[in-house]
Write a structure and sequence with these properties.
By secondary structure, this protein is of the alpha+beta class. Helices cover 30% and strands 28% of the residues. The chain has a six-stranded mixed beta barrel. A hairpin with a 2-residue loop joins strand 3 and strand 4. Helix 1 crosses helix 2.
Length: 221
């Protein structure tokens, strides 16, 4: 203990002799600690922490051995969905920005084109109405259903109590809001908070660019 006190007194005297150097050292140390805290926080929220859905340990993201990022063409995603014998549900999804028109006003919303088993994979139940179902994604034009998040319902639609059954136009195409997700749910991504969900099979109808889908599945290996 005496040795520690002597070291502290010596360090304090040195700081008084060179206050500029001491201040620089303290600031550098503080910045280094802050940077590490921020990096760990981002790492924890984006990689280490599981997505906030029921039984997250049962949700798997499918990928290929060729690409580092899990992408599939739509036919590939459809084949995996229809022919797999391992998972109880499989869904693909593609995100884009939608122009959503309601009551004469148009707003930009983060949208997710999701497979009919998307909410089934994640185990999400609706707060209002219903969510997308397998029949909504059976074939192009099978359904004009749209689901919005609780946050979008409160923010973009003013918490309209009659929101279920409301007609909106997404990229100028008519859709009917059939349900609202539970409060706090924004989709399966950790970076982007989706606001509206529509059937993936209607990509061409919404004039979405050709591209790939992400793959998710629920079950056990």
């Amino acid at each position: 203990m005496n040795s520690l006190l002597q070291d502290l007194r010596f360090a304090f005297r040195q700081m008084l002799r060179s206050p500029g150097f001491a201040l620089t050292a303290v600031l550098t140390l503080a910045l280094g600690i802050a940077a590490n805290v921020i990096v760990f926080g981002v790492l924890d929220s984006l990689i280490l922490r599981p997505i906030d859905v029921p039984h997250a340990e049962q949700v798997w993201q499918l990928g290929t051995t060729v690409l580092a990022y899990p992408v599939f063409s739509y036919p590939e995603a459809r084949d995996i969905r229809d022919n797999n014998s391992v998972f109880s549900a499989v869904a693909g999804d593609v995100g884009q920005v939608f122009g959503v028109e309601s009551n004469g006003n148009t707003s930009v919303m983060w949208g997710l084109e999701a497979g009919g088993q998307y909410f089934e994979v994640l185990g999400i139940k609706p707060a209002l109405g219903r969510l997308l179902q397998r029949s909504d994604d059976d074939h192009p034009g099978a359904s004009d259903a749209a689901v919005i998040t609780w946050a979008a319902w409160k923010g973009k639609f003013g918490g309209d109590p009659n929101i279920v059954g409301k007609l909106v136009r997404i990229n100028k195409q008519p859709y009917t809001i059939v349900g609202v997700t539970p409060e706090g749910f924004h989709g399966s991504e950790k970076i982007i908070q989706w606001e509206i969900f529509v059937p993936l099979v209607n990509r061409r109808r919404l004039k979405a660019p050709a591209g790939s889908t992400n793959g998710m599945a629920e079950g056990s290996l």
